[in-house]
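Please review the protein record below. Tell me whether the encoded fold seems credible here:
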Amino acid sequence: MKKLALALLLAAAVVLTSCSSGKMLERDVFAMDTFMTLRVYGADEALLDAAENEIGRLESLFSATRESDISRLNTEGSAEVSPETAELVSGALEYCELTGGALDISVYPLVSFWGFTTGNYQIPDSGEISERLELVDYTKIRVDGSRITLGEGMNIDLGAVAKGYVGDRLCELLRQGGVTSAVLNLGGNVQTIGSKPDGSDWRVAIKDPFKPDENLLIVGVSDSTVITSGDYERYFVGDDGKRYCHIIDPSTGRPADSGIASITIIGKNGLMCDSLSTALFVSGAERAISLWRESEDFEMVIVTTNKKILITDGVDVLSDLSGLDAEVISRE
């Protein structure tokens, strides 16, 4: 089995941060298996220390592969957890329900069996997949105050939602410290506080999933979150020559194959954007557009596997779309 390393450019989106005013402090952090950069205006080193410590503290609660609330829950089946873990699991379950199970935090046994948590990649046969699909059902997860209980034999993983939640917590911490302008790049999850110090919007570049070293387009955001899920971010190539991405479809137990190469969700809430970027990548463009038309909470950019770009009409596109096969989607 041939294995491909993670793309050197881990970020699904990058931030173009040229600013003409304001003192900026920057902190690079490696956590949650990714590189993070915090760029904060009007803060001191102590506040950045507090933000870095918060990332480490939350990672120690949410990790499925080291000692944590989640690893203990997976071992014991039922456990008392921290308020943050209970809050995150409860919030994630709401998006599992909203998306009809396209997001399912109990898909961990399959993610692990395919090798995406260990690097020991394999292509399971149908029987092995069916056996593990019996353990995937978010509706069997119960949250009662600080106690979480799983169905028999189940395991959960918060990798699809944790960075969005962590970003929300960091923004809250920084705002409480008086910060009114910041951009946090949590391994491609971009969360912003306010706008640039000069009052202009942040410019966030969305990568081309077919040429990940290049940018596809640039969007303008303020006080918003931009999160992308794509089939180019983490994958392996099997002996059959096919590429298998890390996002597992909970309905099939196999890597998602919905016709989407990447989907970017833009909204005010990190947990929502993280959850929807995974779920709608699984669901496909038609379902994604349908859910968007039912909601006023987010905007999105979809790149299909046949290289068509679908952009909802609330996205502030700052780059030239000429030469691209792009379509603006309206709610009508």
Remarks:
- Residues 29 and 36 are 5 Å apart (CA to CA).
- Residues 13-329 form a domain with the T-fold fold (CATH 3.10.520.10).
- The helical segments are 45-62, 69-76, 83-98, 108-114, 126-133, 162-176, 270-283, 285-294.
- Residues 45-62 form the longest helix (18 residues).
